[in-house]
């Protein structure tokens, strides 16, 4: 597996992808299969933002991001995953998250010019065998109007203590953010679904946030917690993908 150093991090080519450094940017080409892409060795961070040259999603093109964590027992596990793909008709593009990796509540937020223009809450059903990938955003018009430009992830914890100082509850929030310009159609379903019912309205956005929360009855055992060790980006973009910058995420979730 070939690798290059970019922004002081090692990047590995995934499957048939090629990695080339050009003018202080990382060019990823030969992306012909949805599993082609890049694995970013973060060396352990709580959150990472990856910026890349804007790409207009074409017919049949799919993009996905998976975040892998190393826990206190040195086990690697996927903790978040999202995918962007067109529907079978080519009319819409779906932004979906892997529900098995999300908490009991999922909030989706649309941003336009720095302002919140859309906010919806969904009840996750991770035990439903038909809801592995759940659609949280539907992008309207045609997929050729969808422009993706960044991906980031951030985790924070809210701890509740009793009068003696003992931890009685820990709420973990994870925020996945996607720089994505286009027209979105709000969903009618309050429960996350693989077959969403669409509203009659549409809203322009330039950034999307997916906020998931999970509550633990006490402290989280250190052997179960950890930092993001790998960011895996995959795509079948014929024109390739160019990463322009990578930075640790310090902003709080919405």
Short overview:
With 254 residues, the chain is mainly beta. The chain has strands at residues 3-6, 9-14, 18-22, 25-29, 37-45, 48-56, 63-71, 76-86, 93-98, 105-112, 115-123, 133-139, 147-161, 167-185, 203-205, 207-216, 226-235, 241-248.
Write the layout of secondary structure elements.
Blueprint: E1 3-6, E2 9-14, E3 18-22, E4 25-29, E5 37-45, E6 48-56, E7 63-71, E8 76-86, E9 93-98, E10 105-112, E11 115-123, E12 133-139, E13 147-161, E14 167-185, E15 203-205, E16 207-216, E17 226-235, E18 241-248
Antiparallel strand pairs: 1-2, 2-5, 3-4, 4-18, 5-17, 6-13, 6-18, 7-8, 7-17, 8-9, 9-12, 10-11, 10-16, 12-14, 13-14, 14-15, 14-16
Characterise the protein shown here.
- The chain has an 18-stranded antiparallel β-sheet that branches.
- 0% of the residues lie in helices and 60% in strands.
- The protein is globular.
- The protein has one domain.
- The chain starts with a strand and ends in a 6-residue tail after the last strand.
- It is mainly beta and 254 residues long.
